[in-house]
Amino acid sequence: MKFYTEENALIVHSGHETLRIEPWGQDSLRVRATLNPELEPGDWILTRPEAARADIDLEGPVARITNGHLQARVGEAGVLTFYKDGRQILHEFRRNYNGSETEQSIALKIDPREFKGILGGHWRLTARFDSDDSEHFYGMGQYQQPYIDLKGCILDLGQRNSQISVPFVLSSSGYGLLWNNPSIGRASFARNLTEFTSDCTKQLDYWICAAQTPKDIIRTYTGLTGRAPMMPEHLLGLWQCKLRYRTQEEVLEVARRYHELNIPVDVIVIDFFHWTRQGDWSFDPEYWPDVKGMCDELHSYGMKVMVSVWPTVDKKSSRFWEMKELGYLMQTEQGSFQTYDFQGDCAEVDVFNPEARKYFWNACRENYYDKGIDMFWLDNIEPDLAVYDYQNFRYYGGTHLEIGNLYPQLVAKAFHDGLKEAGSKDLCLLCRCGWAGNARYGTLIWSGDIQSNFRTLETQVMQGLNMGIAGIPWWTTDIGGFMTDDYHDPAFIELLLRWFAWAVFTPVLRMHGTRGPLDIEPLSDKDYGGGYLYTGHDNELWSYGPEAMEIMKKFLKIRLELKPYLTELYREASETGLPLMRAMMLEFPEDEQCWPLTDQYMLGSRLLVAPVVHQNQTERSVYLPEGTWRDYFDGTLYQGSRTITVKTPIDRIPVFEKHQSAC
């Protein structure tokens, strides 16, 4: 084994492996390793920080590199151990002979960095670390499961509808780790082993940071991966959407009624299959004869107009064969060229090809933006696939196994860059998926096609908190869930009202969903175009009866009153990377009772929000940390460091403001 320095980096050379450890931002190190002759030059989502001088010590059998609070030591067997201010926080898992640096069995012949060659010339990579029973993990994006603490969880590193892989984890031991690799793989936070795998890659690449508080770790991480721009204040009210407004007149009728009722709507959204065929990226003129005139009228009511766009291209569309000939569509390794089969025989745009991204955006600019559409809803951008056989797809930049998790980010980049160049003042893209650093492209990520039930509502709270920890501060859900069997069922209306009240205290308030039963006759007997596909029932505030409407109007008024505070939080997210929705431990890291809380959170640093997430729930417990707390609705003061029980009638959500005593 050979230790040496190179450009302020510690290099460890052993056999065919080259390990490079270098400072990468404040209190941070980037770790890369390869069995190839040289490391790959790219940085994925990491930006190049200002030059940092690390202290490197090559004296004796152990090499050390120190950057601020963080130090990495490499022992005789090449095992990495990380320390925060002298305290061990992470240690590679090695169970092998010759200096394994463990008191556990060394006869297993398991190494911490394992490269296994695969067909195609790259490696299947496994990185292993020792597990600590007292350690807890947060972040990693969005997984449809009822856990905020990921200890004991196994997570697929792969994008799917409602699953978003953002491989940044925050540890209760005082560090954050970014698995800087967009390949398909797995993360395991088991009791006996912490492990990251990549199914196809050229090298190991991760970034680790140690800091004094969880907030400091997030600030450092987002400073290197990108932060959100400033959310326009005129987008912070109600977003009105449903699956689906089928015609121009349906949209205008809804907008006119909101206007007549004096209920402000900030954004009105036009969902899928307003087009002729997937890939045409234009309105079907039979049902949308005057898009410009429609947008002008909607703008006169103070509404921005958003339209759904998919990256799917039907073989019968006007663009398919041109795009195929130009090499602008993703490829399959075996079998049919088709990759998606919902309402058409489709392939997806190869957004790894920069020319394909330009083509995609230019088509949407011509047919949407230039006609008055303000904003874009980038749906199905995981990409959604007929079958998630990741090994069967290839792009301009490599295989899906190697780079596929980056796909949704590149779709967002195409539209962000295009809108910015066009001078848009509404840089907010509603996206169904993303990856680490997506915030920099102004992406509002929502939780996908979720079910309409209280169990799902409960898990959404945890998913929003972990997304924020993973560096995605703009996050939202479909109010009421997406898949509704009977929109007139009193149980569903109860769910909707609880969800609406909670959504008031989230980054974006957005009505959406397919309101079953799907018994509305189509407008056309054709098998294509804007009139043939199904639609759900009404989903406006007045659609659920006068009592429900009054409750939602009450909460909408609260939302509008919150706009100045929300603007402050969006500015803070833009400047520091901190999320609007914050797990309790972010604000109160010294309070051990805050770390495991799953059903309450802080909206910024002032408001404690405790959603009602169970059916027929007439009261619930709320933990108040140290200090004085004021009930947001009736002004009652409570002393903290205790759990209280509060009443939860259908028109009430427990919210408490951190009380600032007078000086």
Structure commentary:
The structure is a single chain. Helix content is 21%, strand content 27%. The protein is of the alpha+beta class. The model has no long low-confidence stretch (mean pLDDT 96). It contains eleven helices and 41 strands. Strand 7 (70-74) and strand 8 (80-84) form a beta hairpin. Helix 5 crosses helix 7 (407-422) and helix 9 (490-503) runs parallel beside helix 10 (546-576). The protein is globular, with a radius of gyration of 26 Å. Strands 1-2-3-4-18-15-14-12 form an eight-stranded antiparallel beta sheet. It starts with a strand and ends in a 5-residue tail after the last strand. The longest helix has 31 residues, at 546-576.
Helix content: 10-25%
With helices defined by DSSP (H or I, 4 residues minimum), what is the helix count?
11
Through-space gap between termini: 63 Å
Our Rg estimate from Cα atoms comes to 26 Å
User: How many strand units?
Assistant: 41
Which structural class is indicated by helix and strand composition?
alpha+beta
User: In order across it, which strands form the biggest sheet?
Assistant: 1-2-3-4-18-15-14-12
Q: Give the uncertain stretches in residue-range form.
A: none
Principal-axes shape call: globular
As a percent range, the share of strand residues is: 25-35%
Largest sheet: 8 strands, antiparallel
Average predicted local confidence, pLDDT? 96
